[in-house]
Q: What sequence folds into this?
């Protein structure tokens, strides 16, 4: 493998890994903030216990999201320096905004929240977790604006004198039409994840049944998690549908690649749920299809045809050729098996999560407790399915854009760092992979141990006025 | 004033913020084996928890300064960001790995009572604090001195290009300065034996820092110095000596302010030495990256300037407030029982 392939693999590994933790952080911070605010409003002990319990699980997860995020910011310059030179004018600004508006907010207020017991008045304390959540949402907005520029470059001009893309309209970058549908799609899918994690953990603790008095409390958190997941999944479907239409408009090849549609369809294009074909996907042997669904997903109508990969490819080759400094590719077609299957796994896992949330609501109605051993599938499946749905969504989005780095402007191969050797990329890739694997083992063990421990018994928290100079810290590492 | 020049200044401000703030938590991490060593295992554990809790609520916010510096460099000086990050590849990899294990150490150390667990994270914290302190010093000193850069703005050296005597001296100065800065912070934030030991240590490390820093700044200044860089060098030296004197008289707040000024003046010196370059080329001065040729367009810089002027004061305000919330000194007496998921408290059964 050359430096380009290694750099791509490294980006894929570190980004997918980072994004396992991101939706959990966004989703759980919202729900923990909700528990905390409910505690302050009602002083119902259950809410304080849930706040502290899920807050601890949240911080265990947040730590990994944070450290893997630092790698992301450095990686653009380290492995993709020509890309950074080319788009720094546009791409760098959202990143700087993200650090200034989001990272400071998240990290400072999380410190205040974790150590704030006995230091902050209770209302202010609950507010700090809400600010952490707002920070995560800001962060998502800016980084998605940067990514949307790569999907659909707007608000810029190419300057042939400097050979760089130059920003002309920051507002256009922030309100890119791809961004306006991607941001709500990502945020709602993060809420699905947050709700599902809380749901899975709560069901496990309910079924354990000790201490018996806590079952009602976990039923409450399971139902809150399930409601969040279910409502959010409706948002994911609506925004995903809108995204499909925008995608067809700005990157028709990606839509065709999602369906492995080689030739332009008739009207009412069918969507295949499952296909067995040749490895390159060019010939199908067996397929289960639903009529008209693809046509609707792509165009919003049942009559319009969907353009296929082959005619699109010819058009792209004719338009871009193979000569310029920034645009070099032979086929302008992504790797179809990956786009086809990742698209299906994304949707399939999303629907599975939705079904699990509905099942949890049904099983816990009127004080019910899920009994059958089949629920083990929900306990492990509920947190994992939407997390992997997120991963597949990103794999689809990014692979589907290939060979472009910035769609229509720059191909991936031209963005890699010229001064970095393949040995250096290989070393860093091995280091990250081993380190990340070790951290995953530690994280999962710690997370499950704290889940097994369950929520601490209720203890009336002390206000700052009730504490003296000599009182022990109410919370300490 | 020229917007690119303003951003040259703002990048200096961001690095100053980073080193003043993360500098002391690097210091605290490096002081683990020194101030975190008690009369017995129990005392050692309590001391380490005191150290950890002095920085617990703030280290993460401190670290964001470097992410902001990185993001701002990307946006304001894309060529600087691209050349530096791809050129200093392996040192940056080491810094990232160090920061990762150190941050995980801060977050995870207290989440189990198990001694082996804690001992492993202790190592992560110590090494993870030492390495970035050293390597940032090596990297920035090399930038100021100039590194091989070709006509295409690409770095042509390797890891060993950076490990030259002056670069390593720069690294040592950063380590010594952060140790002293960290010791002042511990003296300011704790009480009892740790406080006394921190002060005693700071006097010694402060003197070592002063000697090393004077040699470094002379070496750098004699080659590239301007009247401004000599002025900030003098400020750095005086503030450092002042901090040692203040510490000797028990004025911990003044001592800490002293090293904060030293760090700010040292960063200012580095940037005066750099000006008007951002990354001078030792291959050929004509290949140097300058404020002019490495910067973004005025449009981007204008937006960034507005954002920086509006939001940096807000950040400073709430970060400052955090330090106020956690202003109380911590002693071994204040440390509560450890958390441990393995130990299920009696009430839940």
A:
């Amino acid at each position: 493998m050359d430096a380009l392939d290694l750099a791509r693999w490294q980006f894929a590994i570190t980004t997918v890994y980072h994004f396992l933790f991101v939706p959990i952080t966004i989703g759980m911070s919202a729900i923990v903030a909700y528990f905390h605010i409910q505690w302050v409003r009602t002083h119902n002990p259950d809410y304080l216990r849930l706040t502290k319990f899920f807050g601890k699980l949240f911080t265990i997860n947040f730590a990994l999201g944070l450290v893997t995020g630092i790698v992301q910011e450095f990686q653009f310059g380290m492995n993709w320096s020509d890309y950074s030179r080319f788009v720094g004018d546009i791409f760098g600004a959202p990143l700087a905004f993200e650090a200034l508006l989001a990272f400071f907010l998240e990290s400072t207020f999380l410190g205040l929240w974790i150590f704030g017991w006995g230091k902050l008045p209770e209302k202010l304390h609950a507010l700090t977790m809400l600010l952490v959540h707002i920070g995560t949402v800001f962060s998502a907005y800016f980084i998605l604006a940067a990514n949307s520029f790569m999907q659909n470059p707007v608000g810029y001009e190419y300057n042939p004198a400097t050979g760089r893309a130059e920003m002309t309209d920051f507002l256009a970058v922030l309100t890119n039409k791809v961004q306006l549908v991607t941001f709500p799609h990502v945020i709602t899918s993060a809420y699905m994840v947050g709700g599902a994690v809380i749901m899975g953990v709560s069901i496990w603790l309910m079924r354990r049944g000790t201490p018996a008095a806590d079952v009602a409390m976990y039923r409450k958190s399971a139902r809150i998690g399930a409601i969040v997941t279910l409502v959010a999944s409706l948002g994911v479907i609506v925004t995903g549908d809108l995204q499909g239409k925008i995608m067809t408009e700005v990157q028709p090849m990606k839509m065709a690649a999602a369906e492995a549609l080689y030739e332009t369809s008739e009207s009412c294009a069918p969507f295949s749920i499952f296909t067995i074909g040749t490895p390159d996907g060019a010939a199908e042997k067996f397929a289960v299809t639903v009529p008209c669904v693809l046509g609707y997903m792509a165009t919003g109508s049942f009559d319009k045809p969907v353009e296929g990969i082959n005619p699109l490819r010819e058009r792209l080759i004719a338009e871009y050729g193979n000569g310029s400094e920034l645009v070099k590719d032979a086929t302008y077609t992504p790797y179809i098996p990956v786009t086809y299957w990742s698209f299906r796994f994304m949707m399939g896992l999303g629907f599975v999560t939705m079904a699990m949330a509905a099942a949890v609501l049904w099983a816990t109605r009127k004080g019910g407790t899920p009994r059958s051993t089949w629920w083990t599938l929900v306990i492990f499946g509920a947190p994992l399915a939407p997390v992997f749905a997120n991963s597949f969504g990103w794999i689809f989005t990014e692979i589907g854009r290939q060979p472009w780095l910035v769609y229509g402007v720059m191909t991936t191969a031209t963005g890699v760092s010229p001064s970095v050797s393949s040995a250096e990329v290989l070393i860093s890739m091995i280091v990250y992979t081993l380190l990340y694997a070790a951290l995953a083992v530690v994280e999962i063990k710690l997370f499950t141990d704290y889940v097994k421990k369950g929520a601490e018994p209720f203890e009336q928290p002390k206000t700052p006025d009730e504490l003296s100079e000599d009182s022990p810290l109410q919370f300490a590492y | 004033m020229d917007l690119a020049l303003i951003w040259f200044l703002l990048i200096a401000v961001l690095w100053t913020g980073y080193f003043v703030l993360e500098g002391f938590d690097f210091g605290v991490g490096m002081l683990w084996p020194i101030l975190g060593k008690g009369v017995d295992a129990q005392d050692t554990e309590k001391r380490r928890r005191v150290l950890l809790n002095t920085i617990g609520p703030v280290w993460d916010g401190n670290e964001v300064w470097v992410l902001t510096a990185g993001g701002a460099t990307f946006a304001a000086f894309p060529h600087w960001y691209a050349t530096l990050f791809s050129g200093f590849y392996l040192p940056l990899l080491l810094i990232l790995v160090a920061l990762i294990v150190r941050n995980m150490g801060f977050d995870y150390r207290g989440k189990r009572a198990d001694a082996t667990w804690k001992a492993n994270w202790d190592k992560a914290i110590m090494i993870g604090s030492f390495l970035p302190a050293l390597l940032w010093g090596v990297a920035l000193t090399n930038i100021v001195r100039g590194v091989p850069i070709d006509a295409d703005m690409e770095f042509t050296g390797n890891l060993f290009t950076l490990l030259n005597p002056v670069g390593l001296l720069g690294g040592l100065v950063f380590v010594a300065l952060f140790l002293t800065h960290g010791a002042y912070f511990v003296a300011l934030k704790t009480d009892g034996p740790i406080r006394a030991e921190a002060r005693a240590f700071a006097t010694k490390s402060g003197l070592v820092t002063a000697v090393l820093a004077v040699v470094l700044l002379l070496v750098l200044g004699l080659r590239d110095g301007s009247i401004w860089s000599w002025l900030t060098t003098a400020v750095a030296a005086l503030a450092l000596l002042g901090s040692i004197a203040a510490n000797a008289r028990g004025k911990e707040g003044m001592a800490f302010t002293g090293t904060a000024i030293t760090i700010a003046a040292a960063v200012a010196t580095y940037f005066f030495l750099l000006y008007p370059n951002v990354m001078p080329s030792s291959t050929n001065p004509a290949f140097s990256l300058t404020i002019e040729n490495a910067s973004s367009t005025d449009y981007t810089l204008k937006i960034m300037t507005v954002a920086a002027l509006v939001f940096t004061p807000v950040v400073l305000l709430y970060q400052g407030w955090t330090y106020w919330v956690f202003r109380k000194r911590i002693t071994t007496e204040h440390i509560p029982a450890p958390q441990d998921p393995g130990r299920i408290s009696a009430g839940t059964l």
Summary: Chain A touches chain B through 84 residues (CB under 8 Å). Chain A has 13 helices and six strands. The beta strands of chain A are 156-159, 164-167, 271-277, 284-290, 404-406, 410-411. The first strand of chain A starts at residue 156 and ends at 159.
